[in-house]
Amino acid sequence: MDGFIAGTQVYEYTVIFLRAKRSHIGRPGKKQHVSKPSGDGRRKAVRLALICVVNICLSGIMRNSLFILGMCILLAGILPVHGQWTGELSSGDRRAIRAYHRAEEALRKHDPSSAIDNLQRAIERDKAFAEAHMLLAEIYFETDRFAESIPSYKKAIDLDSHLYRPAKYRLSMALYRTGRYADAAEMAKRFLDMGGYAPAMGERAEDLLTRSDFANKLKNNPVTFQPVNPGPAINTPNAEYSPALTADEQTLIFTRKKPRKESPSPGQTAYYEDFYISHYKEGEWTPAKNLGPPLNTPGNEGAQTITADGRHLYFAACNRPDVVGRCDIYYSRREGGRWTTPVNPGRPLNSTAWDSQPSVSADGSVIYFTSSREGSIGPMDIWKATRDEHGHWTEPVNMGPTINTTGNEMSPFIHHDNATLYFASDGHPGMGGLDIFYSRRDDNGQWSKPVNIGYPINTHGDEFAMIVGASGTTAWFSSDMEGGYGDADLYTFDLYPEARPLAHTYMRGRVYDAETLEPLAAGFELFTLNDGRRITTATSDPHDGTFLVAIPVGKELALNVSKTGYLFFSAHFSYADPGSVAEPYLRDIELQPIKTGEPVVLKNIFFEFDSYDLEKASKPELDKLYHFLLENPSVHIEIGGHTDSIGSDTYNITLSENRAGSVRSYLIEAGVSPERITYKGYGDTRPVATNETPEGRAMNRRTEFRVVHADHKDQE
Fold first, then answer.
1. Rounded CA gap, 417 and 438, in Å?
2. Distance between CA atoms of residues 384 and 343, nearest Å
């Protein structure tokens, strides 16, 4: 699985951080007398300069490295100072030396291609020119041409093993980055056995040895991986990447990169990125369509995520007039089939640094994203922000050292289970470049040690931006592997069981007014019954009332649907088998306008057996009733308790009245005036189902509330 990094503005700074093209700077001098190599003086000068090169390359210095590198080489005495050459080269061939100096001049002008050509000419003239082989290896290495650097390093080491002491380390790294892990480990050992290196270099070599052994074990123990190309409806000769799915896994939004037909304007790239959408119908994906304005612009948009209901899109854009930093996160919502004009949330979510690659939790309360902002542990870290009670994003918090390293962490994806985080990293032990990892959050909110998702999903290349569907079984990613339709294509594959999140299904339907049948924009809240934790919030579309809510499998759940001016709706259900992919829950929901006499069954009120003590699982429903009364101050209600027919009439009346009284007491303690709430026990006198079956008796055991008074204003 080869990774793909977009070469456009949305990913501009990803490229800078991960594929910075660092070149060695040379400076030509006058023609000099060439003497035979003296050994120690020449080796010392070259070694000092190249050690300076390596330290800069490994230090994470990016844009200023070229200037500092040139100063290091000058100070090391390899390059001429005031026009005088002070070092010696191993070659005695004048033409080879002139070609070598032309390579230095090309590097000083930031032209590595010309430098490579001249070094190859120098080597053609003198195949034993150790410095030319070494400098050629370094250029290949620093421009990510690791496979080409290997023979040059080997030749330079064979010619003079003392010319540049870190060469064996650099060769080991090149072998590691090309997937030759056993050879990389062997070369790292040879470097460590050589001794005489700085402590920091020794630590890096030890780390490289550990990583090589780790990667070799992964490669020798492959996981199941059979990628499938979804076909030409989605993939084209252009590049497709950054997939995003709705909870039903039937709507796909992705980014496509295409060349501009006209010459780019100032500040634009030769390519542009747009969002495309496809729907899964009758067993196949429909031809992808451009989402059009206002989401797509003449600029670049990408790295998007869509909420479970398919109505909220977060994405990244760069160099817009309203950006806070270099790249910012933007937001748009869909209403009645149309997307609103994207909005920049501003600070504190966005910063003056680089902020991109958002992923929003299923309940909409947490956003995870990649940032290079101040406070990061490495060049790029994963951060998160939570939404406050007013809907605003709070100050982002770094995910900490369990997730982030001194390397790069990026492309987070939080699954619908809100407990499994997938992300890419080159800081955790991996197979070479960026690898995909996953971490799970426990009940105390702590994230587990990240797990490498394994080979061949991960390779020695860059893998990132993988997502997993709500069902937990199918993953999507982008790759330029052979057999595609052109550039990078989107692929799917069945994720092996150990790396899967908690399975989710979905509930789909429509909310409408029970009397007029008009669609309603209502709020949804989904809670787990065992602990009352809210796991999902959503709203139905105000134009057609449709909704889509992700539902976890293997949990007992409570659902509340509400809208101002209406009685709320409640239900509970469960999918018992956490290992299954359950059928979707399809239903329409009608809401009754507030008016006197209308009963509402509180389906998520529970009592201990043969008792009127409220169970903990009742709290979300009780709080919902409290807020309903708070928002409708003129409403007065009666709480009614009901039982099945088992037991005596006296017993049932007493039990039902005590249970209704417990609900009233909870509301009064919460702050509702006692005058607004009456209660009564009806026993088994008002059944809603037969008492001859267990299912019927369960329906008859219930708690209701009924509006006994409401002003006209609250009934509107």
1. 13
2. 19
- Name, in order, each residue with C-beta under 8 angstroms of 627's C-beta and a sequence gap of 6 or more: none
User: To 10 degrees, what angle do helices 112-125 and 94-108 make?
Assistant: 170
Q: Return the bridge partners of 335, or none.
A: 338
pLDDT at 80: 37
Q: Which domain holds residue 298?
A: 239-498
The yes-or-no verdict on residue 73 having pLDDT over 50 is no
| pLDDT tens per residue, range 635-665 | 999 999 999 999 999 999 999 999 999 999 9
Ranking 73-82, 118-127, 253-262, 390-399 by mean pLDDT, the lowest is 73-82
Q: Could you tell me if residue 1 is inside a domain?
A: no
Query: SS3 string of 417-457?
Result: CCCEEEEEECCCCCCCCCEEEEEEECCCCCECCCEECCCCC
Residue 174 and residue 153 in contact, taking contact as beta carbons nearer than 8 Å:
yes
The predicted-structure confidence for 9-26, as pLDDT tens digits, reads as follows 443 333 333 333 222 222
Looking at the fold, whether 466 and 427 belong to one and the same domain comes out as yes
Same-domain status, 350 and 332:
yes
Cβ density class 23-51: b for 16+ within 10 Å, e for less: bbbbbbbeebeeeebeeeebbebbbbbbb
In this structure, are 33 and 130 located in the same domain? yes
Q: What is the C-alpha to C-alpha distance for residues 304 and 393, in angstroms, rounded to an integer?
A: 18
Mean pLDDT for 97-126 is 94
DSSP state of 564: T
The DSSP string of 602-660 is -TT--B-TTS-PBPGGGHHHHHHHHHHHHH-TT-EEEEEEE--SSS-HHHHHHHHHHHH
Q: Is the pLDDT of residue 213 over 80?
A: yes
CATH number at residue 530: 2.60.40.2190
Residues 547, 598, single domain; the answer is no
According to DSSP, the β-strands at 504-513 and 585-586 are parallel
Least confident of 29-33, 313-317, 540-544, 671-675: 29-33
Task: Evaluate whether 529 touches 604 at the Cβ level (below 8 Å).
Answer: yes
Confirm whether 395 is domain-assigned.
yes
- pLDDT digits 0-9 by tens, 271-328: 888 999 999 998 999 999 999 999 999 888 889 999 888 889 999 998 889 999 989 9
Q: How far apart are CA 432 and CA 424, in angstroms?
A: 12
CA 432-435-439 angle, to 5 degrees, is 140
Residue 612 and residue 494 in one domain: no
Average pLDDT, the chain: 85
Q: Does any domain span residue 391? A: yes
Last residue of a domain, one of 464, 482, 498: 498
Report how far residue 481's alpha carbon sits from residue 229's, in angstroms, rounded to the nearest whole number. 10
Q: How many CB atoms lie within 10 A of CB 556?
A: 14
Backbone angles phi, psi at 328, to 5 degrees: -125, 165
Closest alpha carbon to 554 in 618, 502, 600: 502
Instruction: Tell me the DSSP string of 302-346.
Output: EEEEE-TTS-EEEEEEES-TT-SSSEEEEEEEEETTEEPPPB---
Beta bridge partners of 289: 277
Q: Are residues 417 and 489 in the same domain?
A: yes
Look-up of token digits 């799970």: 440
